[in-house]
Specification:
The complex is a heterodimer of chains A (about 180) and B (about 110). Chain A is α/β, with parallel strands linked by helices. Chain A is about 50% helix and about 15% strand. Chain A has six helices and five strands; from the N terminus they run αααβαβαββαβ. Chain A has helices spanning about 1-20, 20-40, 45-70, 90-105, 120-125, 150-160; strands at about 75-80, 105-110, 130-135, 140-145, 165-170. A five-stranded mixed beta sheet of chain A has the order 2-1-3-4-5. In chain A, strand 3 and strand 4 (about 140-145) form a beta hairpin. The radius of gyration of chain A is 24 Å and the shape is elongated. Chain B has a single domain (about 1-110), classed as Orthogonal Bundle (Helix Hairpins). Chain B has helices spanning about 1-20, 25-45, 65-95, 100-110. Chain B starts with a helix and ends with a helix. The chains are: A alpha/beta (about 180), B mainly alpha (about 110). At the A-B interface, helix 1, helix 2 and helix 3 of A face helix 1, helix 2 and helix 3 of B.
């Protein structure tokens, strides 16, 4: 009885060692936690078994799946909403960003906030890109933070567009 | 004795996975595997095969020690919060560097 359970658990650990896909790894981890909670039960630790069922095989896989989903988000906050950039189909700016996110396998998340403060926005919120319109030359300014790796990639995609200017901000810097 | 050896084998396999996995999420999962195995080790140490549940000890069999069990519940809860913190850090790392591969991440740190 015990030895079958131990064999199954070691079998699942070895499967997890060889698995390359993250989602399947999480499912195997949930099964592993269930088998572990059966063993806790057999060792007369009923309370530990209950906690392990609730946390190990339900809550933790949920955490992992949420974390995997969040990694693929590209969060854009836009101060402008006009014919160049809005959420309608066929806007040139929107299409450019969509091309970028599609080519790097990201999910685009756009918020329109007309009074977003750039000071502290990158530090306090999980923003990747802020879009403004410059009053001086009428260009659209794409603000990204300096430490992000994505600004090199985005710059490579949007290099040739004359309507767009890039600004790189240090994380704590005031920009006006 | 065989069961204790098997539990030690499980801890060893978990540490091996923690040390050799290249993906950050996989490392966090193996951290959880090690934690669960250590909990099992403690419960097995204080287990009596003719014993009983530590509820109403007057029912006959000698109860197992309830103090390690209470401590292990604390371990499970703290392990869950450590995992949540590690996952949050992994999201930040992904946004900063664009990858979760340990090898690339360590090289990046050397270059800066």
């Amino acid at each position: 009885m015990y030895l079958i359970l131990y064999g199954l658990i070691i079998f699942f650990i070895i499967i997890m060692l060889r698995e390359k896909e993250s989602l399947r790894l999480i499912i195997y981890f949930a099964i592993f936690s269930l088998l572990m909670s059966v063993l806790y039960f057999l060792y007369y630790a009923y309370d530990v078994a209950l906690a392990e069922i609730a946390i190990g095989s339900a809550l933790l896989p949920l955490f992992f799946i949420i974390a995997l989903g969040k990694q693929k988000n590209f969060v854009v906050v836009s101060r402008v909403e006009d014919e160049f950039f809005s959420e309608k189909e066929g806007c040139p700016g929107f299409r450019l960003l969509e091309r970028f996110t599609d080519s790097f396998d990201l999910t685009l998340d756009i918020f329109f906030e007309h009074h977003v403060q750039i000071k502290g926005a990158f530090r306090e919120r999980n923003v990747d890109l802020i879009i403004l319109k410059s009053h001086r030359d009428g260009k659209y300014v794409f603000v990204m933070k300096k430490s992000s790796i994505l600004h090199h990639k985005l710059r490579r995609v949007l290099q040739e567009d004359p309507r767009i200017r890039f600004e790189i901000v240090e994380e704590d810097e005031i920009y006006d | 004795m065989l069961q204790l050896a098997l539990i030690l084998l499980m801890i060893g396999l978990g540490l091996y996975g923690l040390a050799t996995s290249r993906h950050l999420i996989k490392s966090i999962i193996f951290l959880n595997v090690v934690e669960a195995s250590v909990i099992l080790f403690f419960l097995r140490l204080f287990y009596i095969s003719e014993g009983g549940v530590p509820i109403l000890p007057s029912l006959g069999a000698e109860p197992v020690d309830p103090i390690p069990q209470a401590l292990m519940i604390t371990t499970i809860v703290i392990g869950a919060s450590v995992t949540a913190l590690a996952l949050m850090m992994s999201i930040k790392i992904y946004h900063q560097y664009g990858t979760l591969d340990w090898k690339i991440l360590l090289n990046k740190e050397d270059n800066q």
